[in-house]
Amino acid sequence: MKTLAIIGGTGLTKFDQLEEIIKHPDVKTELGAPSCNVIEGRLGKYRLLFLPRHGHPHAVAPHKINYRANLLALKQLGANEILAVNAVGGIEKNAIAGHISVPHQIIDYTSGRENTYFDGLFRPLDHIDFTHPYDQSLRTKLVSILSGQPLENGFSDFGVYGATQGPRLETIAEINRLENDGCDLVGMTGMPEAALARELGIPYASLCLVVNPAAGKSNELITMDDIRAVIETGMADIKRVIEAYCQ
Ligand code: HPA
Q: Homologous superfamily of 3-114+130-245 in CATH?
């Protein structure tokens, strides 16, 4: 049986659909502990591992997440593929609140994060290929599932994800810069997660839920109340997609 790991983001801190649940408390790695307990269970044809990257309850800030430990923990527990769920701001015009996107590229604007295993300390210096940061066959499968789902706010089978440092949201000028760079989406957790999965050789793709128009893309300020309201229905869509993926 294949093992799929789900890394939950903001709004996805538990996954009730699992059967035969086992909790893995106190998972330790050579690089410290993951954000919280990893939950194992069965979903359709898959053994599933669930790890909320911000912890449960949601408390670890994007720049404080021990991404290296999270990914190592999932590898230790046998993950063969990883599906990351990311709440994002929408930059391109179709990326309205509730829209789901399967990004194909990333630009990394983060700084100061532990972003590699190959740092010459943990592992000898090495340079992975990262031309296509997301696994193409996982992306294709996700897109085919999305096209069979009733999604009120649509989906995109592409997207450039701009990874910002957070935890604050961006200024209008920063979003304009990202847009000029070609970003369609903006989030705080896409990197270094995707690169670490590649370093570990685990196929990785992301399902992004747009939870707000990025700064300056609507006339309103961005409030957490508005974001929470979108998450409520949007994460139900994401869970349906994951369930369909596992059938
Ligand atoms: N910017 C960065 N990260 C985000 C946003 C945003 O607008 N919305 C959700 N995560």
A: Nucleoside phosphorylase domain (3.40.50.1580)
